[in-house]
Amino acid sequence: MNNVKIKSKNLNVYYGEKQALFDVNLDLNEKEVTALIGPSGCGKSTFIRCINRMNDVIDICKVSGNIEIDGVEINDKNLDVVSLRERVGMVFQKPNPFPKSIYDNISYGPKIHGKGETKSELDEIVENSLKKAALWEEVKDRLDEPGTGLSGGQQQRLCIARAISVNPEVILMDEPCSALDPIATAKIEELIDELKKTYTIVIVTHSMAQAVRVSQKTGFFHLGKLIEVGKTEKIFKNPDNKMTQDYITGRFG
Amino acid sequence: MTKEERLKKRHSAEKRFRFYGLASIFVALLFVLILVHNIFSKGSSAFMKTAINVEVFFDQELLEIKNGATEDQILEADFYDITIESLLKVFPAQDLDQENQLIDLFTTDAEIEIKRAFLKNNNLIGKKINLEITASDDIDQLHKGNYPRDLPEDRRRISDFQLIIYDNLVENKKIIKNFNNYFFKNGDSRDPELAGIGGALIGSFYSIIICLLLAFPVAVLASIYLEEFAPKNKITDFIEININNLAAVPSIVYGLLALQILLATIQLPRSTPLVAGITLALMTLPRIIIPCRASLKAVPPSIREGALAVGASKFQSVFHHVVPLALPGTLSGTIIGLAQALGETAPLILIGMVAFVVDIPSTPIDPSSSLPVQVYLWSESAERGFVEKTSATIMMLLSFLIVMNFLAVYLRQKFEKRWN
Predict the structure, then answer these.
(1) Of chain A's two ends, which shows fewer C-beta atoms within 10 Å, N or C?
(2) How many CB pairs under 8 A join A and B?
(3) Which residues does chain B have within 8 Å of residue A148's beta carbon, measured at their own beta carbons?
């Protein structure tokens, strides 16, 4: 068992009057893939958006409780979210490359954080990030072409490369394959397997099969509550909770 | 109803709708066509002016200057006698009255035109040259076929004797049409043949530049702040409603505001492009903010999230990603706002731009006219010659508007195409 990287304690999230998360206590292990499953609107995405404070963008969203990364509280007004997001990257449901060149998509993050002072350093970061995202071979000859011109699967890998480019410790993935075809999905899953050697990964998914394939640990959310969490094998073979059992066997959701 | 009948009904409904659509487009185009035809048929003749070929003899006895005179000397010298002498030689007049009628065929600026010829070449004394002296506006209109010469003499501004001279000139091919440079070069004048839009062009140009410099940065910064940074609460809602209301305020109200504040209180010089520019900027501001906010809103939120997720600050995500994407829409909104400002008349009338200004403004704080106000002024004038000038000015104004609107469309398409 790896060390705990992220720890949430009594996490509650409200969107205006509506409470979206209820007392979530969840530990995420270092260099491991944790899958979060559950029916739509159960709070999986809300949870991972707390880890990089992406919910700050939403005016009516209020977060209470604690989230610690490496033992440091991040749900703190005085915390600099910019440096937090440098450590915690995110990949979204729909590929959202910047409407710029492939090169600029990758080099943007390092540039704003002052990594890669010279052109050759930047070139190296771009190449490494694209290689890690298994996209280098496909795009190395057209780095100056727009990232939006790539196929859906390529765009998502470009977004993963963009997240990797600032060398984060954690990568959050919010249903990264929901807009992709099976072949592109397979490639991303392969990639996640490779990336977990270096990064702590949290993935939200609607596909039970995907959770089984890529994750070591699985958490099941329902109506804003964390119902059950444990080793993926256990959750899918022999869950403790009846609701988990019903969900994974497709009786509701 | 059987299935076939229902199907038939559906098809005929669609056909009917297509017909209505086509008909409305046709009607709209027809009106545009009538408008354009009306303006062109009235205005296109203003770009030519009628001139009469006159032989001018620079008689030393009638001039107090010598060959090689300096510019100042020439400008001060009296060319009146020489002008009268030359003009009278065009046709034999019997008495003083006929002489006056003959001289009235020419513009009041005939002396200045002869002086100008001498300024170009100051060695003309003792020589004869042929000059094309601009005709008076009545002869100009007569020659362009706009003058009803079959009216009885007492209801005509052109006498029978003048008609005889005119016919004689036409027969001898002494009457010609040439390009009307006065129309573009000169300021306003009481004489239609001398009046031009030079002053109005410069005045409009200065006004629009001042309007752009004031309105664009304020509008862009305001919309970026409101759209990207401002919290969504009652105050910002209130501001938003007010901006929309301001865009709908009749322009004459802005004129009254400027009259009270800029002219009466701050005492800026009246009738100037400076005041016009400030007034138009006030009016244009909400009209730029609205499209500018719309184009910021059109940038997908995923772009902002993407930037924030790699650790960009709010400021960086806005200025590195959102603003560049919103720029084409912002620019075209600005240009369309400016095009509206260019055609605005009412507020400018209130701030005194309706004054009769002959001089061409050299700075934005000189009294000046502007294109739409010039149209208004000339459309009220009684002289026949101003009718074509009015239409020609509208043509100029419309062509500027068309160019600006094309530019707006071009900018939007060019920059939006780049990545999609």
Answers:
(1) N
(2) 69
(3) 419-420
Pair B187, B271: CB distance under 8 Å: no
Spell out the domain ranges in chain B: 49-178, 198-415
Identity of the residue in B304, B305, B419 whose CB atom sits nearest the CB atom of A99: B419
Q: How far apart are CA B118 and CA B390, in angstroms?
A: 33
B3 burial level (CB within 10 Å; 0-12, 13-18, 19+): exposed
Q: CB under 8 Å, gap of 24 or more: what pairs does A176-180 form?
A: A176/A91, A176/A92, A176/A93, A176/A203, A177/A205, A177/A207, A177/A210, A178/A93, A178/A206, A179/A93, A179/A94, A179/A95, A179/A152, A180/A152, A180/A153, A180/A156
B420/A148 Cβ within 8 A: yes
Among B303, B309, B312, beta carbon nearest to A163: B309
- B67: Cα separation from own chain's centroid: 42
Helix (H) / strand (E) element for B51: namely strand B48-57
Could you tell me if B287 and B254 are in contact, meaning their C-beta atoms sit under 8 angstroms apart? no
Q: List the Cα angle A98/A102/A103 in 5-degree steps.
A: 110
> Cβ contacts (< 8 Å) between B325 and chain A: which residues?
99
Contact A83 B311 (CB under 8 A): yes
Q: What is the largest CA-CA distance in chain B?
A: 105
What is the Cα–Cα distance from B335 to B328, expressed in whole angstroms?
11
Mean pLDDT of A37-56: 91
DSSP string, B179-224: E-HHHHH----SSTTT--SHHHHHHHHHHHHHHHHHHHHHHHHHHH
Two structure tokens written together for A58: 């939403």
Q: What rounded mean pLDDT belongs to chain A? A: 91
Q: What is the pLDDT of residues B71-130, one digit of tens each?
A: 888 888 889 999 998 999 889 988 999 999 999 999 999 999 999 998 888 888 888 899
Supply A75's token pair.
Answer: 């749900």
Nearest-Cα distance to chain A for B341, in Å, is: 34
What is the model's pLDDT at position B74?
87
- Report the C-alpha gap between B266 and B363 in whole angstroms: 19
Closest CA–CA distance from residue B412 to any residue of chain A (Å): 16
Contacts of A99 in chain B (CB under 8 A): 303, 325, 418-420
Q: Which CATH superfamily is domain B198-415 in?
A: MetI-like (1.10.3720.10)
Residue B121: CB atoms within 10 Å: 11
For B257, phi then psi, to 5°, come to: -60, -50
How is residue A3 annotated by DSSP?
Answer: P
